[in-house]
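Ticket #4471: structure output looks truncated?

Reporter: J.K.
Steps to reproduce: submitted the chain below (507 residues) through the standard prediction queue, then opened the result file.
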Amino acid sequence: MSTVEPGTRLADRFRLEDRVHESGGATLWKALDEILARPVAVHTFTPDFSRVQEVVTAARQASRLTDPRLTQVFDAADEDGTAYVVSEWVSGESLLDLLESGPVEPERGAALVAEAAEALAHAHTAGLTHLHLTPGRLVWTSGGTVKLLGLAVDAAILDLSSEDPAREDAEGLGRLLYAALTGHWPGDLDCGLPPAPLDDGKICTPRQVTAGVPGYLDAITCRALLQEPRRGQPPLATPADVAEALAVVPRPAPAPVTTAPPALNLRSEAPDAPGMSTMPPRMPSHLAHQMAMTSPPPLPPPRPQTGAASKILLTVIVLLVMAAVGVGAWTVGKNLGNTPRGVAESGAAQSPSPSRKPVTVKPVSAAGFDPLGTDRAEKPEIAPLAVDGKPSTDWHTDSYSSADLGRLKDGVGLILDMGKPVPIADVVVSLGSAGGSTVQLKVGDAAELSSLKTVAEKKGASGSVTLTPEKATTGQYVLIWFTRLPPYNGQYRGTIYDVTVHSPGSA
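Returned output as attached by the reporter:
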């Protein structure tokens, strides 16, 4: 058991408040830095903990690193029979939290791992390693940044070592990437995720487990995790190699910093690593939405003041308008009285008939359409979100290095199967807010690019776009085809939030 209790002050500064986890002689506390009035994470150790010196030494070495993506160590000491390590208290969502409902969006997960790989590459340059990369140690903070927890200190607490630490950490990054893409864990450790499925005793690749994983991310994962060459590229043997391979992934934009106080995390984020978590749980999404919705609306612009001169001018204008209306009414009445009966009846007979009101036709299915790509798939697992009637969900393309799809192909899109040939009056597409999209409407009776004819096009499109065929068009398949993409997070990506197909209605 720990020899310290809540309320204990270390170094006349750090007051222990809440015991988060205790196991194996190591205890994690949430504490208060009384000088700077901020929460901190503190590890303490029982007198019989055999690796105190190794932990304190590792913490002091880690404290010299300045990469903001690594947990900052504030203090480490072994004094008067009490050893402790003080580091920053990290608030946010770990990768384990993000994976609670399944794999995250591939490029978002890859971006988190890319940030960790770069930070870890810097640490290896300084001679420090991690050796315990699990989903609970990679955090998307409440301030909208990436944080990798436990550099050097985790390994010292758990007594981990490796003859090839660079390769071990590269494989660890591969495991994190695999978990982000599939929601499964490809390792022996029980980290809170289901184990990766096997095929003849070998770990299935991400694309075998989850549909829609981009081919290049699948290859990078295998090169790091399995240490195998893929697509003519060698294995990724160091964190720097992994960072370089993931450099093409767009990085998430920092989120606005919330002023809401973080809740206390009273559970360990690493079941295999006692006392390692320094994170509170995330704020429930419905509370965050409620906070966003309760911000005060903008004030209306002030109304202009009117003086006496303005009132006189307004009166004159009103009198002139009334006079003009009276003269016009008298003239119209006179003309109507002189109109022959036959002419009036003829005019009535020629009044237009009621116009047809288009009707909405729901598609049977939706799919990502990428006939020109190497993998011939474009986010098929999220295609139904574009026709679910919910403006908050979307289908989107992969991210590309340029607006012309990285010059890899002429186009990519979302194809709808209407179940049978239907006449098309128009198609309303809700795009993202970024301008620059060029979208075409193609219609045909086969889900093949050569059978789909372009019937409408919009350039520089954004927001809600109506694609109307110039002439009568009928077909079973409706394709919204991107030939140019708008900017997105430093790259280019097309997004469709909703699609509505209208067919001509009856009179």
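Triage note (M.O.): checked the attachment and the full token line is present. The chain has eleven helices and 23 strands.
Status: closed, working as intended.
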